[in-house]
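For concreteness, we quote verbatim a single protein encoded this way:
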Amino acid sequence: MSTGKINTATNNGICTITFSHPQSNSLPGTLLRELAAAIETAGKDDAAKVIVLKSEGDKAFCAGASFDELISINDLETGTYFFSGFAAVINAIRKAPKFVIARVQGKAVGGGVGLASAADYTIAHNNASIKLSELAVGIGPFVVGPAVERKMGTSAFTQLSIDATAWKDASWAREKGLYTDTYETFEELDQAVDKLATTLAASNPEAMMLLKKAFWVGTEHWDVLLAERAGMSGRLVLSDFTRNAIEGFKKGAR
């Protein structure tokens, strides 16, 4: 099974981090930790003034957790370690002293919604529907939940979590605050991302760093919180219910 790849390129103060995986840009554990490391490195790089997070292709932005990897988990330690990968990425975005812009070109599921929520500014295509499918496979959006709730509010997070098989369209996600703007074409989407990133790259780094800290006040406990949440998911993924549900999902669409 391919583990996917992470590509990083910095030009004119803009660090673009691109992740990809042949299975709808899903995120195996190895890729999650590489992504977290890339964000941390960009945060320390003086040449990078702003970070753009995107995925490859013109279809799914991110299908969330790798089902192949989930079904292979056989003990609590391994399960907790896997879900800690999502915690590592969210916390890397949270701690980066630079703004993170997410470019969401297509559907986002589970952990993909978490990435879009953790970003400081998220711009999407009109086809970028979202779904938190975790409950449908016997788990729950525990690790990504704090990021989703912080960005969209408790009501929207509750709707997504409970109605775990229903897609919400990009218009709904924009109304709830996940997406700042949505665009009809990929060209318009890229132009909007580039325009904002270029403006931020020319802005005062210290001012942006202080703003970033102000935006994230109240989340200082997330290192501990998300680790605890990873343990919850790591335990649930071992249940027969979850294993059977995942096998069912693998046979059909997410």
Remarks:
- The chain has one domain: 5-184.
- The first strand starts at residue 5 and ends at 11.
